[in-house]
């Protein structure tokens, strides 16, 4: 479930922006072990982007209670009942929340993500993810295994914000005229 949750965060990030590239989204799916064929169309990606926007609300929730409210709404409005599938004996049995093994990509994304994020919240009793605190960065991340107070999507954003805070405090001191 953690691998699926990380795939969710990577897809939400890849689907940000006005015109996400189908080849780029397929590359993220491939990198997270999704089986071929990954022949995404522009329409698939547009629909997946709408699903990613819905999932962003889970990452925006600051407390477990708020994340649970969002997940319950998504589960009620956008997924089917829980069932087990082995894709006709080709995979181990695993749970699905989409309506069909061959559901469209956007339904698959929303359903598999809701499943993974729900299990993480259940296990940890914490929000399953967060949004980068760097202004101008819209990336989301999974909080599990990343320390108690993770605020940024990446080392790059954390470093940039640390440097910016340092510059601000230096500017404030010299504006004081005290040194
Ligand atoms: Zn960031």
From TrEMBL:
Coiled-coil regions, chain positions: none
InterPro entries recorded: ABATE (IPR010852), ABATE_dom_sf (IPR023286), Znf_CGNR (IPR021005)
Residues of the Zinc finger CGNR domain: 131-168
PANTHER family: BLL6575 PROTEIN
Protein name: CGNR zinc finger domain-containing protein
Species for this entry: Streptomyces pyxinae
